[in-house]
Predict the structure.
Amino acid sequence: MQFQPEFGLVSHNIERISNIISKIDAEIVVLPELCFTGYTFTSRDEAISLGETDRDGFTLQRIRELAAKKNMGIVYGFPELDEGRLYNSCAFVDPEGKASVYRKLHLYYYEKEWFSPGDKQLELIEFRGCRIGLMICFDWYFPEVMRSLALSGAHLICHPSNLVLSHCQNSMITRCLENAVFAVTANRIGTEKRGRFDFTFRGLSQIISNEGQIYYRASPDKEEVGVADIDFRESANKRINEKNDLWMDRRPEFYRMGNYGKR
């Protein structure tokens, strides 16, 4: 689901999203990064003022209600408060109300002034037989994230984003191809000019197959919802041809980094 939140208007944004989701027929819906608060904080204090916990936050309660009503899984991004720290997080919420939270590992640009880097291991979520991995926006720049999730057995990667760089969408095609997994990148649109910051978000949300096919790609500047049917079981097949297999052909004993480039 691609849309443009209004900064700081959490209740308003969740009402808009709820109305749209109420009309969607799907098993999983992926929303953008920081989809209810907006992205462009002017300070860490402002970001904290819009944060919530992963246990009883306002948006979590509303998403739980919506997931139960629609009998679907919902992925959404939010600023997570935990013991005085603020994380750029996303949650997968199932119809029973269980929330699985991922904290963004790789912070982009001024996010380093607002958030602490993620401190949890990458994990998979099982939902109706499908093993789902979560990553957020700039995590795409680091192929180790998607590879680690794929090696752990992920079928599908859900990727809430607020993309301002132009490279991600095409790079995610490669990520899906090199790991033979499906991926949903949910981006936002619009421009946020606040204080010294000015960000324009690029849209082009997409659903990519385990063979790198574009099942759906949104426009760069319109609110829209894209739906695609996938058979997640197809991602278990890592064969390229009768002689090559993505996993069997790996040579990890030679992938260790040498002295050059160490920091």
